[in-house]
Design a protein that fits this description.
The complex is a heterodimer. In chain A, about 25% of the residues lie in helices and about 25% in strands. Chain A contains 13 helices and 20 strands. Chain A has an 8-stranded parallel beta sheet with strand order 8-9-10-11-12-15-16-17. In chain A, strands 3-2-7-18-19-20 form a 6-stranded mixed beta sheet, covered by helices on one side. Chain A has a 4-stranded mixed beta sheet with strand order 5-4-1-6, with no helix packed on it. In chain A, α4 (about 165-180) packs across α6 and α6 runs parallel beside α7 (about 245-255). Chain A starts with 7 loop residues before the first strand and ends with a strand. Chain B has 2 domains: about 15-130 and about 285-300, Aspartate/ornithine carbamoyltransferase (Rossmann fold); about 135-285, Rossmann fold. The chains are: A alpha/beta, B alpha/beta. The interface of A and B includes residues 208, 324 and 326 of A.
């Protein structure tokens, strides 16, 4: 790596989309010493570069940021490791990923937060830990937010185990507000969702499966938005939002100037409950695939700015946890490698969302949610994290060839448009399409 | 649907009306007293993850009447108890030479799941709350022994629809054969979403309205423990929804009363109703044998 220092990389001939810097034009980009040295009109960067990248016909974007990734370490390396998970992230164009604390043990201490970031873990992209909000994510007593933040945590959450107790959630929002950290909530009133394996509706009834009512998500989001309004500066981030009702609550909160943000997953904007075929557990995740009306509400919220970020909720599981009876299978799907292509195919081509907005949802949007300074933009002197993609390339996703240790994607065999060509982290090429 | 072996019967949902008629026709050609060795040399594995009296014995007798060998594997007393997965279990059964697997399983979709991983036919003998297709077929067979046609018949289905795989299969089948179906039960057992199961379904919250003018009254089992879980009082259920002789008099004179069993006398129906002249509950069990003979022959027989 040392030999790479002082190296320069010139990305020439491409089209830069950098919503944070309000750039949407043909530009050349020069990277030096892990930072963006210069961004200028084509042909205007003079002087030599150690390496040149021909980006003709390609989009040059700030490195993508994923707010919601399960890297499964510590404790569940049979599903994923930091090395394999970040390799999949790089293949999907993500230069920074936030990893969730619901590991074994739960990441609820500064020691584990530091452990996640050690070079021995073999990460090929930036890893920003999100720490548990309560000890062992049991929802009872808060962790030491200050110590966790100092160790590198960018947010706190009990993802997968929602904080249902009003007092605990209020206290979490208050404590985090003092540190200007967001509290991320997996919004699900689990008292209403016991034994459920999909969304409540006609499809669940027909399939003979217990369904999660949309109200189980919306009621928690409504309460959280209400609680967040009680503390000046409190920041609430709603993970993987999936229902029209919950989006309404977020929209209302934003209108009232609350600091509430939310993310949506590619599977929730691409699929609805009736897409579940043959009890294939690769279509089982939590929150579940919702109704088509909910999916349409997600599309509206992506366009009108209610949704701040696209996050994958990449949740790798081993075959023995997924290739089993639907009701017994684990919740979760992989998603790092298909996120951009689904956004281009489903949001840009089908829902006519501008490419600039899509790039914003992968870059400036998530960077703002967790305050990743100098990331999510290619402005001069920001980090040299760059994602280069071909927005027109058609390809077929083969889940079995995933960089991830697990292959539990519902999108295997899908014909998609838009493909990552190169992923650059701190000026170094960490992924290059073959 | 993903590819499954020909002859599999995973649910009524994906059957065409003509296929249903074909199975019923084949069933009428089956004579349980004069066995024909149509399936001699075939090995049929009965894989039961749930208790069963009538479905299991009926499948066994059907298979043996056709000359097939049957082997019963129960979740208790097998490697399933040691934690063997469903897929490993069925691969094992395939390896020992099964030509067909009949499966009952507490999880919806389990038969579909194994069928997509096997090259032999799979017959669903009841999966969770999803479907119980042979029950629906034997019910249709039974109805047709008493009525000329199913088209246009008024069918009332009373009881716990939500938890019932029998109800889902019956609704799918009777609707494909164009019966007029009224579902009846408290909202806890019959959510409004039930009407989306098939076109033209009606919901009634009053058992008298549901039964009035019916040609067929199908009563479903109500489990006491479910009533408790749903906060429905047992007395209230009995008062409002129990099928009694006075209520049955609202149906057509020649109406038949059906129940997939096991019946709980004094809960979903009175003992008088269970044993009345119009009751075909025992006949349903008897008809299970020729219907299952037809289903097995369709799956394994040469005449297709």
């Amino acid at each position: 790596m040392n030999s790479r220092e002082n190296q320069t990389l010139l990305i020439k001939g491409g089209h830069v989309i950098d919503p944070a810097a309000k750039i949407n034009a043909p530009m050349d980009v020069l990277l030096r010493d892990g930072a963006v040295a210069e961004i200028a009109l084509p042909g205007k960067i003079h002087g030599g570069a150690d390496e040149k990248f021909d980006a003709r016909g390609l989009i040059i974007a700030p490195g993508f940021i994923d707010l919601h990734v399960h890297l499964r370490e510590p404790g569940q390396s049979y599903k994923e490791t930091i090395a394999t998970g970040t390799a999949a992230a790089a293949a999907g164009g993500f230069t920074s990923i936030c990893c969730m604390p619901n590991t074994q043990p739960v990441v609820d201490s500064a020691e584990w937060v530091r452990w996640l970031q050690q070079p021995e873990r073999g990460a090929v992209v930036n890893v920003f830990p999100i720490a548990a909000a309560t000890k062992a994510s049991k929802g009872a007593s808060l962790t030491d937010f200050r110590a966790l933040q100092r160790a590198g945590a960018v947010a706190v959450t009990d993802d997968g185990k929602p904080i249902l107790n009003d007092d605990v959630m209020r206290e979490a929002l208050r404590a985090a507000s003092e540190l200007n950290m967001p509290v991320i909530q997996h919004a699900e009133d689990t008292r209403m969702t016991a034994n459920c394996s999909m969304h409540d509706g006609p499809t669940a009834f027909r399939m003979g499966l217990h369904g999660m009512n949309a109200a189980a998500e919306a009621s928690v989001v409504e309460r959280d938005v209400h609680l967040a309004q009680q503390f000046h500066g409190a920041r609430l981030h709603v993970a993987h939002i999936s229902t029209a009702e919950a989006l309404k609550a977020v929209r209302k909160g934003k209108r009232n100037k609350s600091r509430v943000t939310c993310e949506v997953t590619p599977h929730h904007f691409s699929l609805a409950d009736f897409d579940i075929r043959d009890y294939d557990a690769n279509f089982k995740m939590n929150p579940p695939l919702r109704s088509e009306a909910d999916r349409e509400a997600v599309l509206v919220a992506l366009a009108d700015g209610t949704i701040d970020a696209i996050a994958t909720d990449h949740a790798p599981h081993a075959p023995h946890e997924k290739i089993i009876e639907f009701e017994r299978a684990a919740f979760g799907v992989t998603g790092l490698e298909t996120a951009l292509a689904l956004a281009i195919t489903r949001l840009h081509q089908q829902a006519k969302l501008p490419l600039t907005r899509i790039v914003e949802l992968f870059t400036a949007g998530p960077a703002r949610v967790v305050d990743l300074r100098g990331r999510g933009t290619l402005a001069q002197s920001s980090h040299a994290d760059v994602t280069i993609f071909d927005p027109k390339k058609r390809w077929t996703y083969d889940a079995a060839k995933s960089q991830s240790r697990s292959h539990n994607s519902p999108f295997g065999g899908w014909q998609l448009t838009g493909k990552v060509v190169a992923t650059i982290v701190a000026g170094r090429m960490v992924y290059r399409a073959g | 649907m993903e590819k499954v072996a020909r002859g599999s019967l995973l649910g009524i949902e994906h059957l065409e009306a003509a296929e249903i008629a074909g199975i019923l026709k084949l069933a009428r050609q089956m004579d349980t007293r004069k066995p024909r060795p149509l399936l001699r040399g075939k090995r049929i594995l009965l894989l039961f993850y749930e208790a069963s009296t009538r479905t299991r014995s009926s499948f066994e007798i059907a298979a043996q009447s056709l000359g097939a060998a049957t082997t019963l594997v129960l979740s208790s007393g097998s490697s399933i108890e040691k934690g063997e997965s469903l897929l490993d279990t069925v691969y094992t059964l395939r390896a020992v030479g099964a030509d067909l697997i009949v499966i009952r399983h507490p999880n919806a979709g389990a038969p579909q799941f194994i069928a997509t991983h096997l090259d032999i036919p799979v017959i669903n003998a009841g999966d969770g709350m999803h479907e119980h297709p042979t029950q629906a077929l034997l019910d249709a067979y039974t109805i047709l022994r008493h009525k000329k046609t199913i088209t246009g018949l008024n069918v009332a289905i009373v009881g716990d629809i939500y938890h019932s795989r029998v109800a889902r299969s019956a609704v799918q089948l009777l609707s494909k054969l164009r019966a007029k179906i009224t579902l009846c039960g408290p909202p806890e057992f019959l959510p409004e979403v039930a009407t989306t199961l098939a076109p033209g379904l009606q919901i009634s919250r009053t058992v008298e309205d549901a039964i009035r003018g019916a040609d067929v009254v199908m009563v479903l089992r109500v489990q006491k423990e479910r009533l408790a879980g749903m906060n429905v009082s047992l007395d209230d259920y009995i008062t409002r929804y129990q099928v009694t002789l006075p209520r049955l008099r609202l149906a057509k004179k020649d109406a038949i009363i059906m129940h997939p069993g096991p019946i709980i006398r004094g809960l979903e129906l009175t003992w008088e109703v269970a044993d009345c002249r119009q009751s075909v509950i025992v006949e349903e069990v008897r008809n299970g044998v020729p219907v299952r003979m037809a289903v097995l022959t369709r799956a394994l027989g040469g005449r297709r």
